[in-house]
Amino acid sequence: EEITEIMDSVLEDFGVPRNIKRSVTEAKKLITKEGAGEVEYTSAIYILDESLNDINMPTHTRTDLMEAISKLEKIKEQLK
């Protein structure tokens, strides 16, 4: 729940470029689909991690996404 809230705040931020919003939307779909498991969480982490390299990303968004990745990794470890 916390993770989707973070993602929603990024998606609602007008200062976030569209390509980053696309990545966040894709990652959110993966983790919220029914029966999401380790593979989906790993894919979501990878997608978000790739978007961190975007030079146009606002600093506060980068911090939010790093927090989301951290939380996703914790959940992924619990699924093992």
**Helical content (DSSP H or I, runs of 4+):** over 70%
Give me the Rg, rounded: 12 Å
Shape: globular
Query: What would the average pLDDT be, to the nearest integer?
Result: 95
Beta content: under 5%
- Termini, distance in Å? 20 Å
Give the uncertain stretches in residue-range form. none
Instruction: Give the structural class.
Output: mainly alpha
Q: What is the tally of helical segments?
A: 4
Give a short account of the largest sheet: none
Give the beta-strand count: 0
Order of helices and strands: HHHH
Describe this structure in words.
By secondary structure, the protein is mainly α. It is built from 4 helices and no strands. The longest helix is centred in the C-terminal third of the chain and has 21 residues, at 59-79. The two termini are 20 Å apart.
Question: What keyword list fits this structure?
Answer:
single chain, mainly alpha, 80 residues, globular, 4 helices, 0% strand
Q: What's the gist of this structure?
A:
With 80 residues, the protein is mainly α. 76% of the residues lie in helices and 0% in strands.
SSE layout and pairing:
Elements: H1 2-12, H2 18-32, H3 38-51, H4 59-79
Helix pairs in contact: 1-2, 1-4, 2-3, 3-4
